[in-house]
Amino acid sequence: MHKFNSPPDWPEPPSASWRPPVGWQPDPAWPAAPKGWRFWLNRSGRRSSGPIGAYGAVDAGRLELATVDPGLLLMHS
Question: In terms of C-beta density within 10 A (0-12 exposed, 13-18 middle, 19 or more buried), how is residue 39 classed?
Fold first, then answer.
């Protein structure tokens, strides 16, 4: 399970289990996230790469790669 980690000065998510829906983008009026900010935490509260394809996920581009080569096995922690 991954938890969305809002950057400083962004509003808190509406609930602890909230995840950005597909296609979600932050309000342009919000300040930029700090450089290198991790938007996702794992169940232990440690920084995580996030769910594949989700906003702010470090590995979001791997989903596109998998559609190009279906023989690829994607491992995700």
Answer: buried
CA distance 68 to 76: 18
**Which residues, 6 or more positions from 40, have their beta carbon under 8 angstroms from its beta carbon?**
2, 3, 4, 5, 47, 48, 49, 50, 51, 54, 56, 57
Cα 58 from Cα 5, distance rounded (Å): 13
pLDDT digits (tens, 9 = 90+) for 17-39: 899 998 899 999 999 999 989 99
CA 46 to chain centre: 13
User: Which residues in the chain land under pLDDT 50?
Assistant: 60, 63, 65-66, 77
